[in-house]
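Quick log. Single chain, no ligands specified.
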Amino acid sequence: MKFTDLQSSYDASRRLINSRIQTVLDHGHYVMGPEVAELEHRLASYTGARHCITVSSGTTALAIALMAVGIGPGYDVITSPLAGIATTEAILLTGARPVFIDIERATCTLDPGLIEPAITPATRAIIPVSLYGQPSDMDAINGVAARHGLAVIENGAQSLGATYHGRQSGNLALIGCISFFPSHPLGCYGDGGALLTNDDALAMTMRDIRMHGRARRHARVHVRLGPGARMDTLQCAIVLARLERFDWEIRQRRLVAAAYDDMLKPHVPLIGGRPDRTSVHAQYTVLVEDRERVRTILEQAGIPTAVHYPVPLHRQPAYIDLTGGASCPVTDAMAASVLSLPIGSYMAATAVRHVAQRLLDATRPRQLRGVETVELPG
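-> predicted structure:
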């Protein structure tokens, strides 16, 4: 069993992916080829955003978004401490300082009620981070930001395809950042990312930054600082091919998650959802005691697991001196207990039952009766 089954996804779209790649090899426009503009148009339509700008990675997307709204030295950016390293890295690369506030216990996303007390004259932006495929409480976060004149940058790296109050992730804030890292629900076969916005001026600025700060309308005229951050045409072609099955794959991930829920919910604490939003289940994450013992038992049964994330950002050695010893007790508790199980669109019902049974065996061995009869919904 694989934790992330990329091969089955490729096999299901092999002919279309190979055809898309061959088309790029035939026309030879490997940088800013026609597939780049096509993917940007498709993603803008998918999310309902006015503009999409593809870039070289999700991390680059975050850095460009921060640069576009003027974040730099002397400014603070509020964000979540339970996340991948990319958000903090992007903030620090601009010269700004990350300010960590705690998360909601139920969803593991940023707690909007803690934002306002953390705002100072130096605060310029908020970056809420989607986690386990679910967006943050964006209306509450946008409301706080509006009262204080702050920019909100949605880190939707793990939640493209999820919705919040019926609106697509990636289009829930001033700027949305997404990632096409291979293990994400809509991944490419390397690095890639995108920015989404409804602001015309910001879109132009971010396009300039992506091209070494060069204004597209004036060849070789560099109007601002910027990296070379274009997404390769080949990777755009792969995402275009994978988009054809994306909605189906999301539905399948939700069926797998629902089956896990049915078998585990009475016995194992789960990361919860909210009725105002959906999840694409980038990970399926539970809470366990004595995590390393449980992981060892599952590994011996042939079941791979992962931890997202074992060391929260406010405790990372590279950043701890910069964050002022942030106090995030809920984050610390979650980081000590979260365990992600295998999940994917092509995961068989028998595999789901096997994982659930072994997890129950490792955590509450007396409560296995009846699990064998649980079937995938639908």
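Residues 366-378 have pLDDT under 50 and may be disordered.
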